[in-house]
């Protein structure tokens, strides 16, 4: 298709307004110019091309005969044809055809732009999805690593518990073996003694039933060890509480035969307390002996008196840290035994009274940080003792230096020489004054 360019001269005051408006015509004119196309083509506007040819012929004829009457007519015809061309250019049919053509192209461009924009959006969306997938993958890998570490820790704890259990069972088996070995000689001895007794019995007692023998054997198996107990001596009434605790510990252990332990307790009592045995029956049990000793030598203070003594207790002047702590513990333990305070309050009460009523203010200030911390009473007492030793070592006077005897002799000789010289000087001064 051949393109035809129409050059139409418009006056400055003429404003072209078509069916779609001036702006519409101006925009599509610019787009067609960029594409190398004119507003009107030969296929669509063939008549305009013919009008263009006729206008060129008439313009040439008018210039050849400008002074004739025909020139006037030609000028009028040219003007009329120009008006027709202008009217055709502004016609509604032409603008509709051109608008449909250009809109089709415009829709194509818009679709292409939309496709490009949608393509960019898809790329951005995919990139975001990839980043999210990477983050999830990192989180999953971290979670897997953490779970594997927890699994390893659990396995270690399980192995450690298994080792501890095996160790405990091994120790228990060894202890049981030791007990069996200790008990076997005693059992053999008891069996021998029983056999000797059977040999000495009459014949009608020899045929003892198997059931009776089995009962005796079971009883012997559950009997405590037939070993001699080493009960400490008790002769000072002031030490009754310590002695009583030791004896009760031996009773609770259940490793000594009751009769052997009872006889050992009677033997251990000496001095003035031994007179108590005269008030008891020879068959008195261990519990009866301890009860009688408690009523005569035990602490008979009431719980209220013990608590009052606790609340007024202070460290004495010549009392060291260990003795001060033991005195407090003894008071509170007696109060616990009499039901005045609960066991769980003991630790806090000991710690508070022990530190707040220390006799040395300097020692108290030096150990404040230990008291205000979460340490136990034993840790507080140990730290206070350590500070006490450091303060004592810092205050100990230095030993005077030993003077060498030879040096003393030299000093004495020098002093004697000085004295003689002073005497000679005095004599000379006296002689001079006399002259």
TrEMBL record:
Ranges in coiled-coil conformation:
136-170, 377-435
Report domain Paraneoplastic antigen Ma-like C-terminal positions: 236-349
Q: Would I find Acetylation among this entry's keywords? A: no
**Looking at the Swiss-Prot or TrEMBL record, what is one Pfam family this protein matches?**
PNMA
The question of whether Transferase is a record keyword is answered with: no
Keywords noted in UniProt: Coiled coil
PANTHER family for this protein? PARANEOPLASTIC ANTIGEN, PARANEOPLASTIC ANTIGEN MA1
Q: What is this protein called?
A: Paraneoplastic antigen Ma-like C-terminal domain-containing protein
Which organism is the protein's source? Dreissena polymorpha (Zebra mussel)
Specify the taxonomic lineage.
Eukaryota, Metazoa, Spiralia, Lophotrochozoa, Mollusca
